[in-house]
Amino acid sequence: MQLHLLGTGGYHPNEIRHTACLMLPEQGIVLDAGTAFFRVAKRVKNKHLKIFLTHPHWDHIAGLTYLIVPMLNGQIEKITLYANRYTINAIKTHLFAEPTFPHMPDFEIVLLEDCKSPIQIENCNIHWTNLKSHPGGSIGYRIESVQSSFCYISDTAVDGSYTEFIQGTDLLIHECYFLDDMQDWAEKTGHSYKTEVLELARDADVKKLLMTHIDPEQTGDDPLCLKKESHIFPNADTARDLMVIDLP
Ligand SMILES: [Zn+2]
Ligand SMILES: [Zn+2]
């Protein structure tokens, strides 16, 4: 299973990060469709894209408007959108609205509420869970193949409700927008801060942690100062755009 991290920034793009988008090219699976979604078309190996969305904030859906040309030129032949009803309604009402983007691509829509978990795609089983501490909520995903698994958890505070869901995964990709000195802002906005994410990775016994949804104001090599915190959870790193990860 090869995982491409196409967008690892939160809120808005900056010079080094676009907003949320992950891709499994072989399986045609995409997680979130932020501004990094423009990078999907040229990586397509399976022309039926299956797009799983976390929630309808712009930094996770804006890229759905970039699909018209790849569909017209045949790079992408079919798109299935997996999301909850709240997200689908927001996309129909606010993203593909007459004054803002009048043409909605011909999506096949699958409501997660109607799915028997897990959803099977190619050699992957996709599990999902509701994350409740971000405004409007979000969806967490766990993708499992026979040999390995990874979890994608974005736009949530660490609230203890999904520790079991991510337990023992090979790779946890978890949002971390704030450093510890902004803990009050994390609580106000329903995002995570560094120490609570490191402690979660340790408590859930995950093998590796990659922090994503990074504050776009932080543009240095080590935006979360992770090297100083190795005593909590040593196998942690910051996700970077265009990182490619080989999972067994
Ligand atoms: Zn976000
Ligand atoms: Zn959000």
Explain this structure.
This protein has 248 residues and is an alpha/beta fold. It has one domain (2-239): Ribonuclease Z/Hydroxyacylglutathione hydrolase-like (Metallo-beta-lactamase, Chain A, 4-Layer Sandwich), CATH 3.60.15.10. Helix content is 17%, strand content 27%. The chain has helices spanning 58-61, 68-72, 85-95, 163-166, 183-189, 194-203, and strands at residues 2-7, 21-24, 29-31, 48-52, 78-83, 108-111, 119-121, 124-131, 138-144, 149-153, 171-175, 208-212, 236-238, 243-246. Strands 6-5-4-3-2-1-14 form a seven-stranded mixed beta sheet. Strands 7-8-9-10-11-12-13 form a seven-stranded mixed beta sheet, covered by helices on one side. One zinc ion is lined by residues 55, 57, 134, 155. One zinc ion binds at residues 55, 57, 134, 155.
Count, helices: 6
Radius of gyration: 17 Å
CATH architect. name: 4-Layer Sandwich
Number of strands: 14
Q: Approximately how much helix is present in the residues? A: 10-25%
Small molecules held by this entry:
zinc ion
**The level-1 CATH class:** Alpha Beta
Topology:
Layout: E1 2-7, E2 21-24, E3 29-31, E4 48-52, H1 58-61, H2 68-72, E5 78-83, H3 85-95, E6 108-111, E7 119-121, E8 124-131, E9 138-144, E10 149-153, H4 163-166, E11 171-175, H5 183-189, H6 194-203, E12 208-212, E13 236-238, E14 243-246
Parallel strand pairs: 3-4, 4-5, 5-6, 10-11, 11-12, 12-13
Antiparallel strand pairs: 1-2, 1-14, 2-3, 7-8, 8-9, 9-10
Bound molecules: zinc ion (2 copies).
One zinc ion is lined by residues 55, 57, 134, 155.
